[in-house]
Amino acid sequence: MNVIFVKWGTKYSSEDVNALYNNLIEYNSTYSYHCYTDNPTNLNKNINVIDIPPYPILKKWWNKLIMFASTFPLKGKCMFFDIDTEIIKDPFKILEEVDFNKLTILNTPWKNDPIYDRVTNYDVRIASGVITWTAGNHIQMWDNFIINKDYFLRKYKGIDRYIVHENYEYETFPDTYIQSFKYQKEIDYEPAIITYEEVDFESRNIK
Amino acid sequence: MKRLTLKAEILNRCLKLIEEVYDESMYGDNDIYRIKDLIHSVDSKQWKSKQWLVDEFYKLYNHSDGSFYIGGGWYGLLSYLIRNAWPNESLNITSGDIDPRCEEFGWKLYHSSDINFITEDMVSRDLREYSAIISTSCEHIEPQILEKFIKSKRKDAWIVLQNNNYYELDEHINCYPNATSFANWVEPLLKERIYFIGTLKLGDFDRFMVIGK
Question: What is this model's ipTM?
Answer without folding.
Answer: 0.92
